[in-house]
Design brief:
Layout lengths: L7 E14 L3 E8 L3 E7 L18 E7 L5 E10 L2 H4 L2 H17 L7 H16 L3 H16 L20 E4 L4 E3 L11 E3 L1 H12 L2 H4 L9 H16 L5 H8 L1
Parallel strand pairs: 3-5
Antiparallel strand pairs: 1-2, 1-4, 2-3, 4-5, 6-7, 6-8
């Protein structure tokens, strides 16, 4: 973690997860605006009289005062800026928020500031909280996250032969990072079939601003295919099975 030279410093961040430590402490993983992903310890947070407990719940946006420690920096003060109460009142939205923070957690390391990732995270949580179409919010997040991390899939031309994609059902190759035309399927026989409808929505999510998409409701005949394709591709990139998609399915 890169931090200022002074012993104490401020940061704003979103709590991604926490782990119980000792009798009363928690180790928190937080994605901050100023320093990227950090781990810090909140001492005594599990005691009944702790003033920090309600401010450091998962996917809360918080203002922090931290002090440098030998192994982990210590959270000395915490003030919640947004706890997304509307989101927390709906189990399905909680599941989506859990997925959003799990994705960011799995894709990032303690490697320093990335303000675009931080802004994408807090904007996504705010959109879920404000009642925007949840599936659209999450798919937009998935596509933009891949773009910011350097995994933007090729959707306009064939990832193998380079020819422009025709308006017909195609294939998607995780290995080649994009769409394969039927004539190039031999380049990756394990590629997944993708319908023209799902591909159109995927392209729309990739090229459009949130202002354009904010009222978009993905048709229910397209949504399962689109969700499956994005989850499979993200799992391929991570080389790790995500926990939260099962939670989303369980509460849907």
């Amino acid at each position: 973690m890169t931090s200022p030279d002074s012993r104490s410093y401020r940061a704003q961040g979103v709590v991604l997860r926490h782990m119980e430590y000792g009798e009363a402490d928690r180790i928190l993983t937080i994605y901050t605006l100023e320093y990227g992903k950090v781990q810090a310890i909140a001492k005594g947070i599990r005691r009944l009289q702790s003033r920090k407990a309600g401010h450091l719940e998962p996917f809360s946006r918080v203002e922090l005062m931290l002090a440098k420690g030998r192994n982990l920096d210590v959270i000395s003060q915490a003030q919640a800026q947004n706890t997304y109460e509307n989101l927390r009142s709906d189990l399905k939205l909680i599941a989506y928020a859990a997925y959003v923070v799990e994705l960011l957690d799995r894709f990032t390391y303690e490697e320093g500031e990335n303000r675009l990732l931080f802004n994408l995270l807090v904007d996504t949580l705010a959109r879920l909280d404000e009642g925007a179409p949840a599936q659209t919010v999450v798919h937009y997040y998935e596509v933009q996250l891949m773009d910011l991390l350097g995994y933007k899939p090729q959707l306009q031309v064939c990832a193998a032969c380079g020819e422009k994609i025709k308006p017909e059902d195609q294939f998607f190759s995780a290995k080649l990072g994009g769409v394969l035309c039927p004539d190039s399927l031999s380049a990756d026989p394990g590629a997944w079939r993708v319908s023209l409808g799902a591909l159109k929505y995927l392209r729309h999510l990739q090229r459009s601003s949130w202002k354009t998409l904010k009222n978009l409701v993905i048709p229910q005949e397209i949504e399962p295919e689109l969700a499956s394709l994005l989850e499979r591709y993200l799992t391929y990139l991570l080389e790790y099975g995500l926990r939260t998609p099962g939670f989303i399915k369980a509460v849907s």
